[in-house]
User: Fold this.
Amino acid sequence: MASIRNLKKDINYVFGDIIEAAYLAEIAKGGQVSEKTDMIVDEAVTAFDNLITKVNQKGVENKKAHFKQINQEFEQTARQLIDKINKI
Assistant:
Protein backbone atom coordinates (compact mmCIF):
# COMPACT_ATOMS: atom_id res chain seq x y z
CA MET A 1 0.00 0.00 0.00
CA ALA A 2 1.27 3.43 -0.87
CA SER A 3 1.72 5.95 1.88
CA ILE A 4 -1.14 8.15 2.98
CA ARG A 5 0.83 11.21 1.92
CA ASN A 6 1.20 9.84 -1.62
CA LEU A 7 -2.50 9.01 -1.78
CA LYS A 8 -3.35 12.59 -0.78
CA LYS A 9 -0.97 13.94 -3.43
CA ASP A 10 -2.49 11.66 -6.09
CA ILE A 11 -6.00 12.78 -5.22
CA ASN A 12 -4.94 16.42 -5.33
CA TYR A 13 -3.10 16.15 -8.65
CA VAL A 14 -5.73 14.08 -10.43
CA PHE A 15 -8.65 16.28 -9.46
CA GLY A 16 -6.62 19.38 -10.28
CA ASP A 17 -5.91 17.93 -13.73
CA ILE A 18 -9.58 17.05 -14.20
CA ILE A 19 -10.64 20.62 -13.42
CA GLU A 20 -8.01 21.97 -15.79
CA ALA A 21 -9.08 19.53 -18.52
CA ALA A 22 -12.71 20.59 -18.15
CA TYR A 23 -11.83 24.23 -18.72
CA LEU A 24 -9.43 23.42 -21.56
CA ALA A 25 -12.06 21.32 -23.32
CA GLU A 26 -14.48 24.21 -23.14
CA ILE A 27 -11.90 26.70 -24.41
CA ALA A 28 -10.86 24.37 -27.23
CA LYS A 29 -14.43 24.47 -28.51
CA GLY A 30 -14.07 28.23 -28.72
CA GLY A 31 -16.85 28.92 -26.27
CA GLN A 32 -17.32 30.37 -22.90
CA VAL A 33 -17.43 28.18 -19.82
CA SER A 34 -20.82 26.51 -19.80
CA GLU A 35 -23.01 25.36 -16.97
CA LYS A 36 -22.02 21.77 -17.78
CA THR A 37 -18.37 22.57 -17.16
CA ASP A 38 -19.19 24.33 -13.91
CA MET A 39 -21.14 21.26 -12.77
CA ILE A 40 -18.16 19.00 -13.55
CA VAL A 41 -15.82 21.30 -11.63
CA ASP A 42 -18.21 21.43 -8.66
CA GLU A 43 -18.49 17.65 -8.70
CA ALA A 44 -14.69 17.31 -8.78
CA VAL A 45 -14.28 19.65 -5.82
CA THR A 46 -16.95 17.82 -3.83
CA ALA A 47 -15.39 14.43 -4.61
CA PHE A 48 -11.97 15.78 -3.60
CA ASP A 49 -13.31 17.03 -0.27
CA ASN A 50 -15.09 13.74 0.44
CA LEU A 51 -12.04 11.62 -0.35
CA ILE A 52 -9.65 13.74 1.70
CA THR A 53 -12.09 13.58 4.63
CA LYS A 54 -12.13 9.78 4.36
CA VAL A 55 -8.33 9.62 4.16
CA ASN A 56 -8.05 11.74 7.32
CA GLN A 57 -10.50 9.62 9.35
CA LYS A 58 -9.09 8.42 12.63
CA GLY A 59 -9.97 5.25 14.50
CA VAL A 60 -10.51 3.03 11.47
CA GLU A 61 -10.44 -0.62 12.49
CA ASN A 62 -9.12 -2.17 9.27
CA LYS A 63 -6.84 0.41 7.69
CA LYS A 64 -5.87 -1.72 4.72
CA ALA A 65 -9.49 -2.31 3.67
CA HIS A 66 -10.37 1.32 4.38
CA PHE A 67 -7.65 2.71 2.11
CA LYS A 68 -8.33 0.10 -0.55
CA GLN A 69 -11.97 1.25 -0.65
CA ILE A 70 -10.87 4.89 -0.84
CA ASN A 71 -8.53 4.09 -3.73
CA GLN A 72 -11.31 2.27 -5.62
CA GLU A 73 -13.73 5.15 -5.06
CA PHE A 74 -11.04 7.60 -6.19
CA GLU A 75 -10.41 5.73 -9.44
CA GLN A 76 -14.11 5.29 -10.17
CA THR A 77 -14.94 8.95 -9.54
CA ALA A 78 -12.01 10.14 -11.64
CA ARG A 79 -13.05 7.92 -14.56
CA GLN A 80 -16.63 9.17 -14.38
CA LEU A 81 -15.51 12.79 -14.43
CA ILE A 82 -13.15 12.16 -17.35
CA ASP A 83 -16.01 10.54 -19.29
CA LYS A 84 -18.15 13.61 -18.64
CA ILE A 85 -15.35 15.88 -19.87
CA ASN A 86 -15.01 13.82 -23.03
CA LYS A 87 -18.71 14.37 -23.74
CA ILE A 88 -18.41 18.16 -23.63
Q: What stands out?
A: The radius of gyration is 15 Å. The helical segments are 4-28, 35-55, 63-86. The mean pLDDT is 91.
